[in-house]
Amino acid sequence: MKIGMTYDLKDDYLKRGLSYEEAAEFDSEVTIAGIENVLKKSGHTVDRIGNITDLVSRLASGGTWDMVFNIAEGLKGLGREAQVPALLDAWGIPYTFSGPELMSLTLHKAMTNAVVRSLGVATADNFLVRNVEEISLVNLPFPLFAKPVAEGTSKGISSRSLLHNKAGLRSICTELLENFKQPVLVETFLPGREFTVGLLGSGSDSRIAGVIEVAAVGKGDSSAYTYENKQEWKDRVSYELVDDEAAMSAASLAIKAWRGMGCLDAGRVDVRLGRDGAPRFIEVNPLPGLNPESSDLPILWALGGGKYESLIKEILHSAILRQGRVEAYRGAA
């Protein structure tokens, strides 16, 4: 197959003047080359397309591909992860991972919480603060936890996100509203163990790839999987593959959310235990990081004995399988 690759290369944005934190979600050359090498070794012809601007240019000049391996996070707007899938849909070009409707939903953590609750998936109680005036409307018991409503890579999450009083709530909400120019999600704090559940496949074919417990060590902040913990994960975080009763309960919750929302091919669901010991959905990442060394899904996969090459092949296989089913459905209609 001729496979195009869409991505946002971190170095390109750093050269354009973005700060390291602003570019934190974007991919390194290591990730792009890692995926490219697997695809080439599998016998495919690989065409590096680049970001959405490059994709628009290539489409306008008649470019086409049998499949696009899409890992583009997007730069602007709360629908940024949906932009490349929407373009590819318009051109009728199949791609890996979920479609634009799902990408738009899941980047907005408050809307996602509302949807998964409608599916019977437990979340923390929460309130969305859209402006400074709404901070006083938060009527949840402390301790609370605050974070930007639509950021990845734990951007905006720090040791100050755990809140014990109204003064702290006002201070961090005001700061996040100003710095990230988007609403702040305030949730009841979940004090228990934190799990990341890896998922592969789509719909009824989806399955658990593994469950890891994410725990702070050394200088790590134990209140949450903060931005600093993720950036300095080797010194701050331990990852352990787990299958005890609590971990399996988290896995059951995760796959219920994954299937209920209609997520495709591969991703992660993050889960944390509440004060009562029951699991709560934190967020879903339907466009997971794929850095061979530092991204959660490859780490989880490797702890289970899997090779990076087989993970990329699983993702591509799922996308190809879906495309075959779409064609079969159209042929029967």
Fraction of residues in H or I helices:
25-40%
Strand order of the largest sheet: 10-9-8-11-12
Summarize the biggest pleated sheet: 5 strands, antiparallel
Q: How many helical elements?
A: 12
Q: Please identify the structural class as seen in this structure.
A: alpha+beta
> How many strand segments?
12
Write the layout of secondary structure elements.
Elements: E1 2-6, H1 10-15, H2 29-41, E2 45-50, H3 52-60, E3 67-70, H4 83-91, H5 100-107, H6 109-118, E4 126-129, E5 144-148, E6 162-163, H7 166-180, E7 184-188, E8 194-200, E9 207-216, H8 227-231, H9 233-236, E10 237-241, H10 245-261, E11 266-273, E12 279-285, H11 296-303, H12 308-332
Parallel strand pairs: 1-2, 1-3
Antiparallel strand pairs: 4-7, 5-6, 5-7, 8-9, 8-11, 9-10, 11-12
Identify the notable features of this structure and list them briefly.
333 residues; alpha+beta; 5-stranded antiparallel beta sheet; 12 strands; globular; disordered C terminus
